[in-house]
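Retro notes - structure team

What went well: the batch runner handled both jobs without manual restarts.
What didn't: labels got mixed up in the shared folder, which is why I'm recording both outputs here explicitly, each with its sequence directly above its tokens.

Job 1
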Amino acid sequence: MHKHHHRHNDVKNIKVAFFLNLLFTIIEFVGGILTNSMAILSDAVHDMGDSVTLGLSWYFQKLSKKPGDKAYTYGYKRFSLLGAIVNSLILLVGSVVILFNAVPRLLHPEQPDTKGMLLLAVLGVIINGVAMLRLRRGRSLNERVVSLHLLEDVLGWVAVLIGALVMHFVDAPVIDPLLSVAITLFILFNVYRNMRQSFRIILQGSPEKLNLAAAAQAVAALEGVRRAEHLHAWSVDGEYNVLTMHVVVSREMSMREQQQLKQRIRGTLNQMGVQHATIELELFEETGGCQV
């Protein structure tokens, strides 16, 4: 019952954060146009990306609970990668548009409505802060990742708030496009990082945090094992890692002994970050007694 209650809460928390972010994104776009602030519009693009991320996280948080079936034998975890790629493409297009408009402002800066900027910045800190704190109490990895993303948003709005305060008292309109370019470059850096990670998983690259050499040594150190070879590893969604391997044993074993050895191997691999392992046992004589 407690686990069911938590599963309900994690979906509810992301749902609340999504609607808060979506509502404020609309306010930002309108406010950015009215205040003539490229920094506000840049943050609006950022928050639009966050809204897509939160919406997809909300959907995939529910979808990921579905067990594997005939169509998707590993389950529905990898659908989250599709969401990450869609979000990255939206942010990429939005960032290019913002840069296209912000760079000319560096040469010919225009004074924005600093009072309107201050109001929006304060609202940005409050709304993103509430959403972040709501998710920070969650225990799921999805909630924690999204809450960290919202923390970045809060810090971005603090920067806009400081910039608006400076421009309110000092005639320095160039600060607005500078903030816009800085925020946009930060977005593009994260887009690059997320796309690189997503494509590594889709192309079934070996999980970055999984040391295959160390895994082979750990398995080879178990009683009755001569060596571990032909290790192949990939990640389903960046969290759920799969590994296949051949294990050469030193003597013939009964079915019961084989099952016990496989359980020990899986326990060892699980501690190293492998959630699913397929193990093929081979007798030392079957390999011709050769050392690999």
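Job 2
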Amino acid sequence: MRLPRITADEPQIDMDKLQEMVDYAYANGVNYFDTAYPYHKGLSELAVGQALEKYPRESFFLADKMPGWEVKTLEDADRIFEEQLKKCRVEYFDFYLCHALGEENYKIYREIDIYGLLRRKKAEGKIRHLGFSSHADVALLEEIAGAHEWDFAQIQLNYLDWTMQNAKKQYEILTSHGLPCIIMEPVRGGALATLCKSGVDVLRAQEPDSTPASWAIRFAASLPNVMTVLSGMTTMEHMRDNVSTMSPFRALSEQETGMLFEVAELYKKSRTVPCTGCRYCMDCPSGVDIPEMFALYNRYMLTEDEDALLAAYKAVQDSKYAKHCVECRACTANCPQGIDIPERLKEVAQLMEKLTKE
């Protein structure tokens, strides 16, 4: 869950804005709220718990996640879980996930039997529905889905990744196992909200008053085995757009779905970096702000506005520039998108060197 921050460079959450957004969401029928242990450097659970505390507990669904990478023993997992309940100011989680199951993280769950612990928490009434989130490839996802008695699963799915990252096959795997899907990154970290000019033109020709983000949300929500769609919202503008998209909801037609796949092809030709801004690659040992560098680069590739790029780049501290990458590759194993981060940072550095010399 992306939340409004006081400043762009710090994790501190703007509680006044968050409360306003939660109140608006709640009043307009939104009842599923998602958080996790590492979000906003540990502050998300506290903020979400505070914002929801005034509402009757049975009137909303709260989702949280077990950070397997923080667990060395079963006692660690138990301590973290109980700590999460306290931080969120609740006695149970409606939905609880084994977070980001991938090749390395999944080993921890198997070796320590975190799943067994969470099943016991469920038997105690502290978890209503137990599932997992994953960016794993299709082979590992198939293994995970069939390994335990899950209630649901959460995957990254949008009309760009439908083919580019095999989201279609992942969705089909979960459906074949009878697991309802929760969708993360429906707008791909905001990339499908901005798009490229040619893609935006196609969408505007179809429906001039609909935002690119609303099309992306509708794509994910139109799939029959989707239980809910997550959207990280940092402004009331995002909130209002999402609420109006989902209420009343209009499922995509076959023609509209085909149009979005055409837009995806246009976007792929723009040479943007497929970064969602999740920040799993951080902190960089050399101090590079990897997500920010890619965000600036992508903005330029979509708009070709040199002045805007230079102004935004100069607003970032020099120590965070792409040119400081030493190719240690500490970041690459943590990237859910499989981006060759050092190679793409070279492109950013080369672009900036070229533009600053002109």
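One thing worth noting from job 2: The longest helix spans residues 341-357.
We'll revisit the folder naming next retro.
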